[in-house]
Amino acid sequence: MSEPIGSSTDDVACFDLTSRPWIEVLGLDGVQRELSLREVFVRAAEVRRIVGELPTQEFALLRLLLAVAHDALDGPRDIEHWADLWSDAECFAGVGAYLDEHRERFDLLHPTAPFFQTAQLRTAKDEVFSLARIVADVPNGEPFFSSRMPIVQRLTFAEAARWVVHAHAFDTSGIKSGAVGDGRVKGGKVYPLGTGWVGSLGGVFVEGDTLRETLLLNLVAADTDTMEFTSGDRPAWRREPCGPGGSERTPTGVRDLYTWQSRRVRLHHDGSSVHGVVLGYGDPLASRNAHRREPMTAWRRSLAQEKKLGQSPVYLPREHDPARSAWRGIASLVADRAENTQGAEAAAYLRPGILEWVARLVTEGELPRGFLIRARIVGAVYGTQQSVIDEVVDDRLVMPVVLLHRQERTCARQAIDAAEDAELAVRALGDLATDLARAAGSEEQGPRSVARELGFAALEGPYRAWLLALTQDGRDPFAWRRVWQCEVRRLISPLGSRLIAQAGDAAWQGRTVTDNKGTQWLNAGLADKWFRGRLARVLPGAYPRDTTPERSPALPGPASPQAGEQVEHAVSVTDPKVSA
């Protein structure tokens, strides 16, 4: 049993993160508990996942654990080393000795090198600030939206440790108090230098059935050709403690990036709990073209930055859109790099390095084709010049790992195209809402947005079920795509009928409208015909050309069409958006 705080021989307070419980986890038994760093690795096979106060905290802690694993295992060196770890139930046995070796640097309250902090960090006026500066679930100026009322007075050492890790990853930008010794201070302040490193990313990682699987699936081997590793890569606790100023340097690899010291922090405590904090800027880091070092985000090519900098290509992290569910962005997760390339042009998008790594595992036969993974997306959405966190994005998509296979791309392409089917059908529903509003002479944008939300909500569950069944029982992906188009039609068509029934007398009477095709009379009846024609165009598999009723296997779940259900034939209409 570990000693209580303040009971050491020199009576100096300590909180050893290697032996004291501080990381919250959910066990396979459904019980939530706190574990020490050592216990997390010993019991990784018994743990479902990390549980944070926020999903972003979970992500930041996972990156910390990955840095420990990479450094303790000194690898994996190559895919063979990874395969040995995957098959070894005691693969993390060496982590205990590693933590013993570096135990002093994991003391949250160490007098000269406190964990993830800068000893003696202070402002010129020796100010100590509210813990709300590091506790991200207390919105600045919006305390009524938090469970912590009205402010954070104190934190346990375990809570404080979690929020310190989170601050380095996701802290907001804005003006911060200047620390004594920081050359960037002007008038007692340091002006905005951006969010914590992970806050600039659209975070992506892979979840397994246990924390052990999750750690191993995200443990990228050093011989991965899409990533850069150096022999000098090491985490923050194997570097000299940070001073109050920032350091302009390039990360040496994932161990460095996963523990990047984006901030300078000093906790104030009384030996029993934490009551205040000093928080300032740390090491700045530009996200431009960091795709060969940072594996936990997708990347987008920025033509604007290429023009500004006079270089090509330039890639920036592809941040998450809180209004867009993970299934709708499946292309950014499973599309192979070559599929985003046109001729000699650089790819418009790069999928996350983590998923490139898992693609390699399945392509080289280290993971079975039927193995299921959860692609988890986590991110923060900042507002008001990145000085506050407006929203936290958290979603996951369960999918067969074969979708990432580099040579067998048929299933992946059908999955991407099926998501596009959904997008186009919902667009048709939104166009219907717009046309009905135009026919009635009312505002258009509101009805269109509501219709699109209804459409995506109706398709989300069925798409996820369809995706899981895509590779089952030797199923033909092309035939299964036609089943999906029938399902989309079955779900979206009644939503259109409902919009038309609710259109009102003004829309049925109609009015003269003008668009780029000229002037014409538009009413609810014509809007309905256009809508049916658009669905016929974007969902051709749901409109067979012969007169024989189509019989298709049903999708899983209660929303599935009945086998043998007759499919209507396409409507021949004149719609400028269809015929163009």
UniProtKB/TrEMBL annotation:
Matching Pfam families: CRISPR_Cse1
What superkingdom does the record give? Bacteria
What is this protein called in UniProt?
Type I-E CRISPR-associated protein Cse1/CasA
Gene that produces this protein: casA
UniProt cross-references to InterPro entries, sorted A to Z: CRISPR-assoc_prot_Cse1 (IPR013381)
Q: Which residues lie within the region annotated Disordered?
A: 231-253, 542-580
